[in-house]
């Protein structure tokens, strides 16, 4: 008789699963037996990802596409509504989708693009999916942050992040990644004793498509110089997969990891008052408590 796969019977949702770290994370979770829902905004890339994962995980694997642009809160709400209608429970949520825009961009809803995609979307999606995570009993929320959070300073940078004249892509990106850690800390605190865990991670410097046509020229140059030293998406996805599936971290919550081990985050990322304040701001900005 075949031995059941470790994640058989579990459902995982991975955002930004059409390329890079998210694609490999979704593939590995499917190979471990999870039914995987891929969130992507581009139809062709999502279908290609689905085909790649199906090929790796075999014909019995359940791989589904959810096509949503998560930079808008109303889309996050629609995705959550759909999932709440279709699923009975959600065992694993990987908040992976991320962007590093080179220029100041405001979404239709008036949020700076990296703040909206990298922080507000995970905040809103996780909160809206809490009934499904709760129904799973011991669900895990994994959020992909970055070591770039070390230079983040959310309150002090508010003006730089939100003004076209003063905008710095690095500041905006770093602030959103600092927000990922503070969000995880506050979420873990609020979910204490529920059985749902929340952790976040730095994946390493990974050779992915994070650098796009609109990324700043400086960053493009730095990225291409750094490419030979970067790790592969397979290596970059290891900590996400570990936090989403390894039995030994099933009871750990509110931590920041790198290389599949707890890691040190900046002092600002460990500030409980900041974490609580960010939660209040995020609730105001998204309209979701
Ligand atoms: N690469 C690194 O060295 C590194 C280091 C630290 C942290 N990270 C973090 O790792 C995560 C994954 O990035 P990656 O390096 O794998 O880059 P990537 O290959 O560009 O993957 C990013 C994914 O996010 C999706 N995405 C972006 N904006 C979206 C939106 N509005 N709605 C839905 N999906 C959206 C992208 O979809 P499209 O294909 O449609 O754009 C893509 O699937 C990010 O959170 C990033 O900040 C990366």
TrEMBL record:
Gene3D superfamilies: NAD(P)-binding Rossmann-like Domain (3.40.50.720). Keywords: Oxidoreductase. One of its GO terms (molecular function) is oxidoreductase activity. The keyword Amino-acid biosynthesis does not apply. InterPro entries: NAD(P)-bd_dom_sf, SDR_fam. The keyword Repeat does not apply. Pfam families: adh_short. Belongs to the short-chain dehydrogenases/reductases (SDR) family. This is NAD(P)-dependent dehydrogenase, short-chain alcohol dehydrogenase family.
